[in-house]
Design goal:
This protein has one domain. The longest helix has 25 residues. It is an all-alpha fold and 201 residues long.
C-alpha cells in the first residue's frame, strides 16, 4: 500500500528533473534558460546545444513520464475504473512535475509534450502512435514544432477515446492537452504574429 500512495509523489519528483538543464550544464557552457526561447525542453536544447543533446533531452523527458506510468499499470488493475483513476493520477503527477518542477521552485518548467508522450505511450500505445504521426505530418508540412505539438495535443483525447473507450483516460488526455495549450501561450502569440521560429531554415 505504501508503494501505491508514494508512486504519485515519486512521479512528480521524477517529472521535475529538468533534463535540458542537467545535460547542457554537464556537456556545454550554455545556459539554456537564457538562450533561444529560454525553454528547457528538447527543441530549444537541440537549437542551442546541438541535436545529440536535444535527442537525449527528449528521451529523458519521455522516460520520466513513461516509467512511473508503467509502474502504475503494474500496481493497478488497468481496465478497472479505480485502476484507470490511479494511472491517470500518476501520469498527471509526472506531467505536472515537468510543467512546475519543484527543483526550480515551480517555475520555468517545460511545455510538457515529451513527458505527455511518454505517459501515453504506456497508457495507450495506439493513441501515442496517432499523435506522433500527426506531429510528424505537421512538422513536415509547416516546419514548426509548436504547431505540430498543438496539433498532436488536440488529436490525443480523440485518439484515446477511440482506442480505449475510457472516459477516465480520455479525461486525463483532455487535461493534458489543455495544459499543453496553456504552456504554449507565447508560441501561439508568435504564430499569430508570424514570428515563431522554424526548425530548418
Amino acid at each position: 500500500m505504501i508503494k501505491v500512495f508514494m508512486l504519485p509523489v515519486f512521479a512528480y519528483l521524477l517529472g521535475s528533473i529538468p533534463w535540458g538543464i542537467v545535460l547542457t550544464r554537464l556537456f556545454t557552457s550554455v545556459d539554456i534558460q537564457s538562450e533561444g526561447s529560454g525553454n528547457i525542453g528538447a527543441t530549444n536544447v537541440a537549437r542551442i546545444a546541438g541535436s545529440t543533446l536535444g535527442i537525449l533531452t527528449l528521451i529523458g523527458d519521455m522516460l520520466k513520464g513513461g516509467i512511473p506510468v508503467w509502474i502504475a499499470v503494474v500496481l493497478a488493475t488497468p481496465n478497472s475504473f479505480w485502476g484507470e483513476i490511479y494511472i491517470s493520477l500518476v501520469a498527471l503527477a509526472a506531467f505536472s512535475g515537468h510543467l512546475y518542477p519543484v527543483y526550480m521552485r515551480f517555475k520555468k518548467g517545460g511545455k510538457g509534450v515529451a513527458t505527455a508522450a511518454g505517459c501515453f505511450a504506456v497508457i495507450s500505445p495506439v493513441s501515442f502512435m496517432v499523435a506522433i504521426l500527426v506531429f510528424i505530418m505537421f512538422v513536415c508540412w509547416l516546419n514548426i514544432v509548436a504547431v505540430a505539438s498543438l496539433a498532436a495535443a488536440a488529436v490525443l483525447p480523440v485518439a484515446v477515446w477511440k482506442a480505449t473507450g475510457s472516459g477516465v483516460l480520455t479525461g486525463c488526455a483532455v487535461v493534458t492537452a489543455i495544459l499543453i495549450y496553456f504552456r504554449h501561450t507565447d508560441n501561439i502569440k508568435r504564430l499569430l504574429k508570424g514570428t515563431e521560429p522554424v526548425i530548418w531554415k
